[in-house]
User: Fold these one by one.
Assistant:
Number 1:
Amino acid sequence: MESLSDEVKDLFEPRSHLHKARIQAAGILKGNDWTAYNEVKSQFERKRSEAKLRFQQEFQSRISDETSRLIDKAGSVRRRFVPRIFGSDKFYKAAIREQAKLNVQAVHRSEMTQIDKQETKQVRVLVDQAVRIQEKGEKLIQDFQSATDRRVGQERRTRSWNRSR
């Protein structure tokens, strides 16, 4: 059985990773990269809204399907023999319905978590590409500065003014 802290971490971790990726993207992306980021963001917002709408529209049918599945599971033959005087009927319609509702909500939460993970993955790809391009540009500037350094002797061994600072 998972602890409460593990459940909370599993619930909020994908969303927090997405939030961090969005903040990083806002600080780094420019121009065409920003346009691509906005397309990714709108694509996943559409996926989220479709999933929420589908969840709302199919909520009752999903609960009835899950209820029948739970009833079928509870009614399956078990190899546990209990004397009749100690046995009791463990069928509580309200409890089964509530469990079905919880199961349906858990499936919806996991679907939303998967959407968050997919968006985080795509945003990270865009951010990594932008960082690589930025580092490449900085390296070119540093290489140019070192190639055009006209100092001689001891002066050349001291560090010169750097544009990246």
Number 2:
Amino acid sequence: MISTASDIIVPWAGQTTEDYFQPAICKAPDGRLMLLMQAIKASDAFGPPSCAFSADDGATWCAPSTIPSLATRCLADRAEEGIADVRPYYHPLTGTVLAVGCNTFYHRSADGALVHDRTGHHADRRQHPVYTVYSGDGNWSARQSLSHPFFADCANWRIANFQMVIKADGSLLIPVYFRPAGQGHYAVCTIHCSFDGRRLGIESVGDTLSLPSHDLGESSLAWHDGRYHLTLRALDGHGYHAASHDGLAWGRLACWSWEDGELLTMSATQQHWLATDERLHLLYTRRTPENAEVFRYRAPLFIAEVDAERGRIKRHTEQIVFPHLRRDGCDNHFGNFHAIVTEPGIAWVSDAPLWFRIEKAAKPEDDHIVGFRTEVWLKKFALS
């Protein structure tokens, strides 16, 4: 059972001119709430990750400040290397926060605008995971990169917008998506990692999960009732899931469906978990009769209980976490959100509704987003 423990919290309402996006919340070593986010500059173009804190359970927040080690770096040829899709997790055994994301590349157009580089990168500009550690003294470590021979030949490999499992021994299971050399589509695997409060190291790599003609990515992992559960974003109009006893060897992929077998239409958007010992919940967006015109059906944001044994969503338990709203003729859109259990029985969901319109071009692939604005939304839940 899940119940709302707070109304929607909007930090810095009317107090900032920044359009913050993909907020991610966790507990800091001193017990405060920590919130990571990035200013969005253009479609898929972000400023450096910033961090804010709340000492009163989310009621008030300090002003966000940039994480120094994740600052944007200038490269040659009007290019920049940024850090994106960062998610923070408190690590109890070391009393630190591990924040993991990936590098990404932008270029400056002739008019100086920052544009996400979708055209492919130089050989020395492959995407790969990076991380930084927040310690009890209030400082962030230097930026560090993650590497392993399994991914050495990949065109890109990313840890992004994810949920991981912290095991009792302090080791980590983290989902990764990657584009194998010479192949056109992203696949997914999980990695078992050691972490000593300073360095993250890959100990083993799990099975590869893939679809024959579509990308998989931005996966999330949860532990519930003796098994690991993985949910995956796809680009074929569905979300996928799989289960495992060890978090490395996975069963078959299945599309998300209701208990009666009817498939959900999800359209290339993340899903995330909230798990307790008793219940497993999924957060997601899907097509409804009311949102057919919303880009990728990205509002409202739903939560529902999952039949973990059958891998199906219990329709009668579905609730709206954040609503579908229209402002000035524009729909809000969710998608790059985060969900976390911060203490037994308490969970938080963080998202940034994005209002925009799409300016059509001669070719659909040249359509672009204009006039966007965002807010940061937080909500606290009681779980049982």
Number 3:
Amino acid sequence: VKFITFAVLAGSVAAAIPRERNRYFSWKNGVPFNQVEHRWNQAELPEKKVDCRIKYSTLAVSDTSRVEVGSCNKTNDISIKVTAINGQTNYEWIAFDQLPKPAAQTAGFLDMIVGRALAGEVAQTLAPQQSFRLAQATVEVLCQAKQKEAIVRVVKENGKCVRETVSLFKGTVEGRNEVPCDNACPIN
């Protein structure tokens, strides 16, 4: 009986540890509790790719934000940078090895027609609500290093260099200041 009681108690404590860890990090970092696991996964990706030199290309610009996309040439992991008009910048990563792989089978003729028709309907539905224009700007990561719980990187954008401090856990730019391009790297 004592062994069963101990086993039940030990199992309850073990089950509570991840939840309490997430609760602590939610409180410490100001991230909603239901997003903590996602943010943990996001923090691992740039930390592993700290030696990647990513060149971002502007994908779309709207009245409220700019979206830039780049990839790590060593792992093919994708980084998405979203900058709001108020200057707040967030990063989101997509692990290439976790993307769905193309199906081995080819789609039937009917599948191709239905798929295109649905895609056309979605595009027509979104078009009036969203106003995007394509842009030709690029942002290049010149160097980056992990410092405590952040990635510090120097990026070159529109001929100017900027040092960014990106929170590993939240994916947000916590600090950003212009630096001279000629001696901005390596990061100390």
Number 4:
Amino acid sequence: MTTMFSRLRLVLAAALTIALGASAAMAVDKGQIRLGGDYDIFIIGGEDYGPCQDACESDSRCKAWTFLRTLGQCRLKHTAVPALPNACCTSGLKEDRKPPRIVDEGECADFAVAALDDNDINRSSQCGYKGPQWSSDYREIYGRCLESSPKRRQSEVAERKEALDDCTRLAQRSQQFACDHFARMSVEQNKSNVSNRCGFRGAEWRDDLKGFFDSCRRALRSQLEDRVLAREAALERCFAQGGALDAECEKYSKVSAAQFDRARVLRCGPAYSNAMWHGDFRRHYEWCSKATPADRQKWLVGRNRGLRECEDDKRRGGKIILKF
């Protein structure tokens, strides 16, 4: 918001003087400063007070101004505060030829800021609203407010609120539909996993419609797409193998986990707890899916031999030596 105001102020000095033509009468007091009543402060640079004077002339809120030559700073004032002697500055008092406007200018300033905030929500939420009520031009909104009755301003605020509420409801409904679709697709993918005996397990492979729906509401849309695509790729690999390899790996994983459980019951010792001796079905399954049939058979046979040696050792009370 600050950046937009800064750009707006810099344009005022050059553009508005030409557009407005001859300026209204304005008293200029060199060597005078007007203290208080500031509603806008910005840097012009240089020592020419003209742009500051023009900025006040072009702004219906402005009643007086002060230009600090040492800083190149312009101060616009909403009140015709008294001038005091000070060599630092040049000041001016706007002499408006028109009768005073009966309007709460502070209200219009708040109105314009609120309208810009509403339009930010409109754009960030991709509501797509356009037209004068959805402007990003502060001066245009402020000027339109000055020309409107209090009743019309209140009506416009209410109209924008209703429009944004409608947009929010539509966004929530869209998320509801998207998450419902994600949850149903996730459950269907797991059904394919089970029916084809692919053997995939874990949080991404379950028959839990509500669980998938709740996780969707906490995730980004891109994350949801990645999860669906990852499951689809896994299913495609399973289908390409006809399910045979996955069925073998399911059997391998169950036997491997059972062998580890047996070693634990026998208290065979730390030699029976390593990368290939564990009870994690998924880890066994993932290793199996990448191993050759010969390697899978080697470890099944090797663990059986190790269990026999452990049993013999328990009977003899001797030392266990694993050989593969």
